[in-house]
Specification:
alpha/beta; Rossmann fold; two-stranded parallel ribbon; 17 helices; 11 strands; disordered N terminus
């Protein structure tokens, strides 16, 4: 599958209508028959952006505010990779060293807010409640939750994984702010090379951003591409490393021990069922609790957050426990967890090398413009860990340390999350190219020396990370060779 569009100055009317076709039509709001909205979620939605934004202001891996206190104020923080992009309270950027101006941007971003990707997360709790309902074992609260789920089903059917209107809005905002912050890069007939994975929500996220850019500057030369040809680095999922996630007895035991005291919810069983013991044959309190919380949190990405009240039945402590469970899973599968070898972030070594190679090439040009890449959180999180942005290269075999040391995946990959590498120089003859990294539009730190923080010397970065990737590949080849003997 390949989609490629070249946008030039010709036929502005045709171009704008073409850009508009990249965006899905608005959908009629679902009616819930006048049911009272969930007051707690309605009140917390306004805090979603502010709290996450304030949390992300810190470039330190630790935070003075605990995850539990954040969740008490705003349960949506526990949504992890389902949380909404924090686009408020953005800090002022540090001025560049004297004489340096931005001339090139390299970017990788996740798609915006979407519907849940598949039916499993809905079917699991829904089928449990339906079976209990057939046994006349649902309390009034249980019946209310079942009705909520039917409303969600009706709205989500035929939209599994689709980008929502919020997702479009997020990428329009990110593109607008990128142009406002770095106008030098987007001036005149600058070239924008935008690429996406072949997943529709990523293509539409790219289209939403490009719609803003061409509207702001009709002189831009924009090329759009979504092709299997680029998937080797845009969405590489290393089979060996993915299997290694839960491959050792040590990591399996640590994971099971960690979640044991967090996975059960007897209070929920008492709340939803008249005789909890009578339904245990058809209801798992573990997976009912897990998927119900996730279902409630996920609705923040759709218009139904105003009309469902699933989250009202959970306490902050229960939501917090789910966040802890999810956080250690993301660390094991994508972080530098010592329990499984600590190599999971290297799934994105091809992307990192491509970013470096593209930058090296673009630096040679007088006006390189912008390279935009649209993909997924399962790429963005390990890439962040591989580079070590904001301390996310943390290596530990103690899962209980993650929270204390600030390894919170929620800070990296909300819907619409992104990494921006902003390059600076005085002119094309300037050999000391500087750059800085923005994680979700906020200045970030790297684990390499610099005398101009938050800016770094590009030559130091490329040398450090090319050696790092090369060392891993040599180790991997050695291990593979020994196994083949």
């Amino acid at each position: 599958m390949t989609q490629m569009i070249m946008v030039t100055r010709k036929s502005q009317k045709s171009r704008r209508s073409s850009s508009a076709r990249l965006l899905p039509k608005g959908r009629k709001k679902w009616s819930t028959g006048g049911r009272r909205p969930a007051q707690r979620i309605l009140q917390s939605v306004l805090f979603t952006f502010l709290l996450l934004s304030l949390l992300l202001l810190s470039s330190s891996p630790s935070s003075a505010q605990s995850a539990l206190s954040i969740i008490r104020d705003n349960p949506s923080f526990a949504a992890s990779n389902y949380s909404i992009y924090p686009d408020t309270a953005l800090p002022r950027l540090t001025p560049a060293p004297e004489g340096k101006v931005p001339f090139y941007i390299s970017h990788y971003g996740r798609h915006g807010s979407r519907y849940v990707e598949n039916r499993k997360g809905f079917d699991t709790p829904y089928n449990m409640l339906c079976r209990a309902d057939s046994m006349n074992e649902l309390t009034e609260t249980g019946k209310m939750i079942l009705n909520n789920m039917r409303v969600i089903f009706a709205d989500t059917e035929n939209h599994w994984g689709d980008l929502t209107s919020y997702g479009q809005k997020q990428h329009r905002g990110i593109a607008q702010r990128m142009m406002e912050r770095f106008p030098e890069v987007f001036s005149g007939d600058a070239h924008i090379d935008a690429r996406s994975t072949i997943v529709p929500r990523c293509i539409l996220s790219m289209g939403s951003a490009m719609h803003v850019m061409i509207s702001n500057n009709p002189e831009l030369h924009i090329s759009l591409k979504a092709s299997q040809e680029d998937m080797w680095y845009m969405n590489h999922q290393d089979p060996l490393l993915r299997r290694n996630g839960m491959s050792t007895p040590e990591v399996t035991k640590a994971y099971d021990d960690f979640i044991e005291e967090r996975k059960h919810n007897e209070r929920l069983m008492q709340l939803l069922f008249i005789h909890p013991d009578s339904v245990r044959g058809v209801v798992s309190d573990i997976w009912l609790n897990y998927y119900l919380i996730k279902m409630g949190l996920f609705q923040l990405n759709t218009h139904l957050y105003k009309d469902t009240s699933i989250m009202d039945i959970f306490t902050a402590q229960e939501i917090y426990k789910l966040w802890q469970w999810e956080n250690i899973w993301w660390y094991i599968m994508h972080g530098a967890c010592k329990l499984n070898g600590g190599h999971q972030p290297y799934t994105q070594r091809y992307l990192l090398k491509k970013i470096i190679e593209d930058a090296d090439s673009c630096i040679q040009l007088e006006r390189p413009g912008v390279q935009l890449r649209y993909g997924h959180e399962t790429v963005l999180l390990p890439l962040t860990c591989l580079i070590g942005i904001n301390g996310f290269d943390l290596e530990t075999d103690n899962l209980n340390e993650l929270e204390e040391k600030g390894w919170w995946a929620s800070k990296v990959f909300p819907m619409g999350s992104n990494l921006q590498f902003i390059f600076y120089r005085s002119d094309i003859n300037d050999k000391d190219v500087l750059f800085k990294v923005l994680l979700n539009e906020r200045e970030a730190t790297l684990p390499i020396p610099t005398d101009v923080a938050p800016y770094y010397h590009w030559k130091d970065f490329r040398e450090h990370y090319l050696k790092k990737v090369e060392a891993y590949e040599e180790l991997r080849n050695t291990i593979t060779s020994k196994k083949g003997q």
